[in-house]
TrEMBL record:
Protein name as it appears in the record: FAD-binding oxidoreductase
InterPro entries: FAD-bd_PCMH, FAD-bd_PCMH-like_sf, FAD-bd_PCMH_sub1, FAD-bd_PCMH_sub2, FAD-linked_Oxidoreductase, Oxid_FAD_bind_N, Oxy_OxRdtase_FAD_BS
Coiled-coil ranges (or none): none
Keywords annotated in UniProt: FAD, Flavoprotein, Oxidoreductase
Family recorded in the similarity comment: Belongs to the oxygen-dependent FAD-linked oxidoreductase family.
PANTHER family: BINDING OXIDOREDUCTASE, PUTATIVE (AFU_ORTHOLOGUE AFUA_1G17690)-RELATED, FAD-BINDING PCMH-TYPE DOMAIN-CONTAINING PROTEIN
Organism from which the protein derives: Flexivirga alba
Amino acid sequence: MTNVPLVPATPAESLRRSVSGRVLESGDPGWADATSGFNLAVTHRPDVVVAAACTEDVVQAVRFAGDQGLPIGVQATGHGATVPVEGGVLIDTSSMNALHVDPERRTARVAAGVRWQPVIDAAAPYGLAPLNGSSVTVGVVGYTLGGGLGPMARTFGFAADHVRRLQLVTADGAVHEVTADSEPELFWGLRGGKCQLGIVTELDFDLMPVAHYYGGGLFFDGQHAPAVLHAWREWVSQLPDRANSSIALLRLPDLPDVPQPLRGRLTVHVRYLYVGGSDQGERELAPIRAIAPALIDTVAVTPYSAIASVHCDPADPLPAWDTSCLLTDLPAVAVDALLAAAGPGVEVPLIVAEIRPLSGAVAGTQGSDNAVGGRGAAFNAYVVGALPPPLIEATPAAGRAVIDALAPWATGGTLINFHGCDTSRPIDAWSAETRDRLDALHERHDPHGGFRFAQPHSRLR
């Protein structure tokens, strides 16, 4: 009998034997879905994808990357994707969907791939709610690691302020159970550091005792933008912490799934949420309702399970470009500058130009011994536009023009979750002291830069 030499296993084949999830190479079924995400403008091109099913799969993928000298990227939903993963190993955690709510402790535990809506639905029967983002299709872990500025932030603070435990896989493949007591420095850095320190595979966090809210959206015709924006600027500074609001200039496409009064025109969207009785919530909102007739008014007593209706963020993937800046103040002249760049009479390919206040519990110190940046700012300005091929240059130019118009009131920094796709601007989401502390953690836990596709702490990386 002739001996047939054995064909050596490829690296990907050896990896398949060590994980329970799928291992994909270019051309395999599922490759296109695994290498794209919510932002269709960013497509990853790794050497191999590991669709992890559990923490042990993440461990094996990280160890494989280390043994092969390959960089590591990670993605759950792709909402925060800004720079494509080029080569290396992309760990897709979207199938890690374990979720448990403890109603007695008022906490939830989620695996790395869980999105916000399932958490909201699981907590609702107990009269509880998470500090989710404005989009309920965003992944819980990535959002929280970046701080987490959601619809109830003025009332309860950043989502990161309410984390109790994290399970972390570091670059050496070790699994860390991270709490304030077990590993206080990692616990500090993971909450807001957004995250060159490893891959968080589980997260425990507090739930809030909120079953319903009084809120929704007020949509005004664009001709009323100056009056509404100037009134909102003065009104929002006087709100109690139970009241939450943001405002946006909207240019929604003329498509059948867009409400007819909002199609293909400039409108102003005032988002509002009051945690408490509807009578007081209505009284607080009355000054804004009186400014002009609303095209649409959805403000009402609403179960928390319908929280997505406050911001009405898109649920379907699209190619997009976004950027932001933090503001020290929003005087009348800043509102005028925003209107001049994106208000009535200006043709710009932007879907949203919004302002969110960073006041109330967001600015407070309770629960804030973490790496979340931006607490000293007064407002966050954020713009996003569609990025199909015809707008590859026009959308970034229009977005930068809005941010440039607000430059006289800018801090020079951003919130890391809102930094966006503008690679022409350095990431400056933390104070120098916080950034140095994060860099020291990174040097300790990932000295060879395995997680180099993560958003960097330092301007030098």
